[in-house]
Amino acid sequence: MSPLSVTWFTRYDERGASSRYRVYQYLSGLSTKGMAAEVRHMGPPRGYGHSVAATLLPVARRLLDCVTFHPSSSRRTVVQKELVPPVGLPPAGAIRRFMTRTEAIWDVDDALYASPSSQKRELATILVESSQVVVAGNRVLAGWAESSGAYDVRVIPTCVAVPALERQPDEERTRALRIGWLGSPATEDQLAILASPLRALVRDRGVELIVMGGRVPPLLRGQEGVHQVSWSAEGEDAFLRSIDVGIAPLRDGELERGKCGFKTLKYMSYGVIPCVTFNQVHSDIVGDCGILISEHAHWFDGLMSLLNDPDLRARLGHSARTRVKQHYSTEVGVDLWAAILLSDREQRH
Question: By CB neighbour count within 10 A (0-12 exposed, 13-18 middle, 19+ buried), where does 118 fall?
């Protein structure tokens, strides 16, 4: 039998976080298992300063692929997130024909079915109905796929690399407790949910707050002990090594319930204690290795329980990192993808 090749049709190039963590981070690991991968992307995320022509060219190639791409029997096809841009969708029949002709696997890590965009919702319906296999980023998305008539549904979480260096025990530190939030301008409105309890902790309890990738909520701007830093890959590593508690507040909407808990996993991989909104995905990820907040009024008390108990912080930080190593590491993701790709190949022969 010839070696297995995989063609991934990704939404972004490696600069896009969803494509980087759902696809690119696995390629070297899959190559060690005898699989060769080709990635066909639709360019970088918005904001990278590319010309209109440079942005449209990969999109044009993707639309052409929908008509001309024909895999061999030794090649698998995986569509990550969106096969085509949701703006100006080609005819639904063309997308369905591509998915069925290539016996494609669809990898979905977002609740496109709950998007305000009717075109994204339409695209989600087409992809879930015409995929050979749906790989969902969590059980919520898997449940939607199953109820929408998907032929075969598997779950692969959005895995993360676990840094080699363990954090120092909390009791060895003499500085103030540091709470961190990792996000982007697109998600900073979620942080504003916690403006009042965070202000009380910073002002009255000497806690520090570090916000990376988004803006500090207006209520906290100018407050001593509150810091805002821009995101970069190198800066993210230093940020995660410097904080003790990572927060992930979410509103209770269908879009939010389908999120894959990425920032929570990043916190935990560094031994940072997650203090996060309770929902099914967060509950699955965190288990008993962090603080799950079910009511807005409980955020202050939840964070205070960590501030007042160094032993609890040390225990939760260690167990959080161990949990990610065992269930959500990049190596785990490689094994899960290899099992799907190789078993699917055997069924096709």
Answer: exposed
